[in-house]
Design a protein that fits this description.
With about 90 residues, the protein is mainly α. The protein has a three-stranded antiparallel β-sheet.
Length: about 90
């Protein structure tokens, strides 16, 4: 039997988040979040198992880039990927 000192609990950060979590991260209401989605202002999402989810990294990047619309976000993401590829 393992003692408490022998057991390490590892908390994993989620890779994908739901709308409610995205709202908390961005400090906006769910109503505003869904308005941002419907007007193309939110980061891209995916449907998985009937749920709409966002990559946590994309939401963080979207905030860091000052909330660009989805088209601009995709352009910035592509530029970032090209930059990383050149550095290899």
């Amino acid at each position: 039997m393992m003692t408490k000192q022998q057991v390490q609990i590892i908390e994993l950060e989620p890779l994908m988040i739901d709308a409610k979590t995205a709202c908390r991260i961005c400090a906006v209401s769910e109503r505003l979040w869904y308005t941002l989605i419907s007007t193309g202002q939110a980061p891209p999402s995916v449907k998985l198992g009937g749920r709409r989810l966002w990559k946590l990294s994309s939401v963080r990047q979207w905030v860091e880039w000052n909330l660009p619309n989805i088209d601009r976000f995709k352009i910035l993401s592509e530029q970032e990927a090209q930059k990383c590829a050149r550095q290899r």
